[in-house]
Amino acid sequence: MDYPKSLPGVNLRNGKFTDGNAQTGELPSRDTAIWANSVTDELLNVINSAGLTPTEGVNDQLKQALLAKYAQLAGANFTGPVSGPTPQTGDNSTQLATTAFVSARTGTAGDLSFRNKIINGEMTISQRGTSFVNPANYTLDRWQVFYDGTAGSFTVSQQVLSAGLIPGDPVNFLRWDQTVAGSGSTSRWISQRVEGVRALAGGKVTVSFYAKLSAATSINVKLEQIFGSGGSSSVPTASQTVAIGTGWAKYALTFDLPSVAGKTIGANDCVILAFQLSPTSVFTFDLTSVQLEAGSCATPFEQRPMQIELALCQRYFETGIVSFRWDAPLASNATVGTTCAFSARKRIAPAVVMTNTNTAQFTILSAESVSAGGMCPSFGFVNWNVSVTRIAAFPYAADAEL
Predict the structure, then answer these.
(1) Is 14 helix (H, G, I), strand (E, B) or coil?
(2) Which pLDDT band, with edges at 50, 70 and 90, does 109 fall under?
């Protein structure tokens, strides 16, 4: 494209257009049809190459085309600030995100950490065990089973995931293997209670997870606000149905979580995330990388260090060993006590169960002065007079679940 230098009678001055000069008799430049058409064709080529349809009266199509072409640049190295249109809130397309969009979505950079309100979403922590037959309560850490009617026969277990199947490469997944169908059932849930009903209240939240089923079918996913003992009645959100396939895939659902304004909040308030499975059929359901976060976009699963994830789980439940040592001779009716600090401070003083692994020699008396931070356990002897240095150790479980 150039000035119409080769066209006769155009009257260019120094190769460019001129308005002419009446005093000197210089004629103004003339726009020829050939030149006007070539300029128009040049602009239309840019518009058409961007996949746009040229339209009279629309005066920003060249701008749209240039922005679209810039977005296709591979390995562009911009030396200055680059601006563009800010996507709408909730946009989940491949459009580039401006800083304004990111700030509106995440707030400060710190909000990107601990954005996932689910604990043990990759099913890696299993303090209670790795396999549970017909469970009716907690299984893998923080994950709780509920059903009505008869159980049939099923096992909830921790499984190892083959490498490279899922982004982020989680090591584990939860499996619900229903080998004999239940009966008289209307509900069969695997769920987690998120501490604090205020969590994420009054806005949009997104649940995302990876799952598969032995046979393609649908499950229901729901959230429910629990206001605790002495609090307002619970508020369930509308349950959403999602079709689950037979291969690993990511699923994302957005919910409107109501405000808690005007509600009475009691003890043990929480938000429940629950996956409802078929109550009266045989199936194998696999689940991992579960995330609950603010907003209407599903971000990549937040992978926290193992030691942090374990500490988060231990706020609600932990297992450990309490040990005793004594040097002086003890009578058969003596008691021995010690102190035991929990690995992580509990949300409330937990219920403690100590297991006597040697009932022929010991009798456990109690776990005394139990607080959120620890306890003072003690035990007694059974017809044993000890006169040498001895050590005894007993496993315990401290439960402060919601």
Answers:
(1) coil
(2) very low
CA distance 112 to 84: 24
> Residue 385 corresponds to which tokens in the numbers above?
């007079």
Torsion angles phi and psi, residue 75, rounded to 5: 65, 30
Contacts from 4-12 at CB under 8 Å and sequence distance 24+? 4/32, 4/34, 4/35, 7/32, 7/34, 7/35, 10/35
Write the burial class of residue 379 (CB in 10 Å: 0-12 exposed, 13-18 middle, 19+ buried): buried
174 SS3 class: strand
Q: Which residues of 170-190 are buried (b: 16+ CB within 10 A; e: fewer)?
A: bebbbbbbbeebbeebeebbb
Please state the pTM of the whole predicted model: 0.75
Q: What band does 86 get if pLDDT is binned at 50, 70 and 90?
A: confident
SS3 at position 235: strand
Per-residue tokens: 64: 């749209």
Whether 288 contacts 210, CB under 8 Å: yes
Band (pLDDT 50/70/90 cuts) for residue 394 is very high
Q: Looking at the DSSP assignment, which residues form a beta bridge with residue 377?
A: 367
User: Token match 């929990």: residue?
Assistant: 342
pLDDT, tens only, 291-341:
999 999 999 999 999 999 999 999 999 999 998 887 766 666 678 889 999
Query: Rounded to whole angstroms, how far apart are CA atoms 304 and 49?
Result: 45
- DSSP-derived pairing of the beta strands 317-326 and 351-354: unpaired
Domains of the chain, first to last: 33-71 (no CATH), 131-306 (2.60.120.260), 315-399 (2.60.40.2080)
The number of CA neighbours under 13 Å toward the Cβ of 231 is 21
Return the structure tokens found at 111: 């909000």
Q: Indicate the SS3 state at residue 309.
A: helix
Which residue in 231, 229, 243, 125 sits closest to 174, CA to CA?
125
3-state DSSP assignment of residue 44 = helix
By the 8 A CB rule, do 259 and 308 touch? no
| pLDDT tens for each residue of 2-31 | 777 877 877 888 888 888 888 888 888 887
Q: Which residues touch 2 (CB under 8 Å, ≥6 apart)?
A: none
Provide the residue count of the chain. 402
Take residue 266 and report the two structure tokens written for it: 């009691």
Mean pLDDT of 51-73: 83
Q: Which whole number is the average pLDDT over 228-244?
A: 97
